[in-house]
Amino acid sequence: MNAQRRGLTWALILIVGALTLAPVAMLAFGSFSEGLQAFGRFTLHKWVAAYTDPALLGVLWNTAWFVLGSTALATLLALVLAYLNTRTDIPFKFLFGVLAIVPMMIPHVLFSVSWALLANPSNGLVNLALMQALGLEQAPLNVYSLTGMIGVEALLNMPIAYLIIAPAMASFDVSLEESSRVCGASTWRTLLRVTLPVLRPAILAAFVLGVVRSLASYAVPRVLGMPGNVDVLATYLYEMISVGFAPDYGQAAALGMSALAVAVVLIVLYRRLTGESSRFVTISSRGWKPSVVALGRWRWPLFAAVALLSFVVVVLPVAVLAYTSLVPYSMVPGAEAFAQMSLRHWTAVLQDATSLLALRNSLFLTLVGATLGVVLSLFVAYVIVKLRTRAAALLETLTYLSFSFPGIVIGIGFMWFFVQTPLYATVTALLIGYIATYLPYGVRPLASAFVQVHDHLEESSLVCGASHLTTLRRIIAPLLVPGIVSAWILLATMFLRELTLSVVLSRPGSEVLAVQVLAFADDGLWGQLSALGMLMIAISTALVIAARLVGSRFGPQHASG
């Protein structure tokens, strides 16, 4: 029995270690190599060239403003929303659930493109409407700027920050805040002196994770930054390996090593903060309920603000894509626009060979990749939660290491790795890269599900003569269906919209939908881009619904029958 468990643990350590450490090792070796075709010819020239480039200082300055600005705004918005939802009597609280979940189903590249369609200075729909309504000669908004990038990235990161802060906000014991008020403190002073200090670990965790996500962000800088000549580290690295006749993978690897080191440190800090926040549990066992602050006359104005934010984050991006996919060119909605609506852009996309190939590749990566990822995550989560050995702790460390990988950086590491193998420029390379990068997203919900399954169930099955594999398949797996469904949905949606790794690894013949969306954007084919984007959203929604139906059909209530 112990031998089987040790064998499973070390087999998983080898697999996960190869997936996570191989690209990092190749990135390190590549930074000391002359080039992809001269791997092993060691030199320090790439490091010197990378860090003495005069343009680097400006790129780092833009990156700092973009990362810190967008993260601070996202955390502040999430904190306000979490307080309104859990601490006040604001009406229609279902909007907070919409804000927290639905934006995660919209691919970042499509969200960025939607704001380019709305607020670009030449023919953005909002700019056109404002110019017509106010008689302006120049567009008042310019999303192709550092300020525009910060705003859009903040809207993308806000749901993640909300999901971290809201549960911590909801776990307060009413007596803490009531004690403060009994002592004469106002609601505002209680918030500042009692509520926020206890929430500090959760707020810092949300901020740190936001920094990691913004540092790794590529969609917003690529779609909104490059047209405005605002380079951040992600786009700077991409240009280094894709623009010109002699891409410099060694120099990109040297810069990538620093970005990777920063991201790893931040993720270690994030995990420590989330572990610290779990110690601030203030729910009592008797008569606990969250205190509710009456908003009074501010109740409906604040609700209107939340409804407007929901419209901006959820409705507007999808609506502008749907509208643009039907009109011949950018035009303000009206009688003339509606009269010219047609399916010409949809027809062009469905007849485009490259788009159809990208669709097939993305569906393969989504369905097969998510399934393989869940299978691997199932075994990894089992070892991490149930065995609790030093080897299991090592496996957990290796698994969550990839959580810190900035996509463009680890993509360069995978490029160095795959170019030495026959897998270079194939869909299989993308499949391996996707699973390696997003494995923590599969392990996390499954680990939470395993915690809920008592050890006595497994022990009873083993005592009756069943093997570990049979026990996992016949006893434990049916009880894990909700976690399996959640993990599959997370991986499937991540794989379908994946962009950053794909732009580095995909080549002609291995295009995916997100890369094809960027190609349409580069060519200015906004109508076809919007049609393809709506197709991506429809597929993502259908996958989520189908997975939920399968989960309800084969859940534990059916397994027990």
Structure, described:
The chain is an all-alpha fold. The chain has a domain at 1-23 and 347-402 and 414-561: Orthogonal Bundle (MetI-like fold), CATH 1.10.3720.10. 75% of the residues lie in helices and 0% in strands. The radius of gyration is 25 Å and the shape is globular. It starts with a helix and ends with a helix. The relative contact order is 0.13.
Key attributes of the depicted protein:
mainly alpha; single chain; 561 residues; MetI-like fold
Reconstruct the topology from this structure.
Layout: H1 2-31, H2 45-51, H3 55-87, H4 94-101, H5 108-119, H6 125-134, H7 146-170, H8 174-182, H9 187-216, H10 219-225, H11 233-242, H12 249-277, H13 299-324, H14 335-339, H15 344-350, H16 353-387, H17 390-401, H18 407-418, H19 427-451, H20 455-463, H21 468-479, H22 481-497, H23 500-505, H24 513-522, H25 526-553, H26 556-559
Helix pairs in contact: 1-12, 1-16, 1-17, 1-18, 2-12, 3-7, 3-9, 4-13, 5-10, 5-13, 7-9, 7-10, 8-9, 9-12, 11-12, 12-18, 13-25, 15-25, 16-17, 16-19, 16-22, 16-24, 19-22, 20-21, 22-25, 24-25
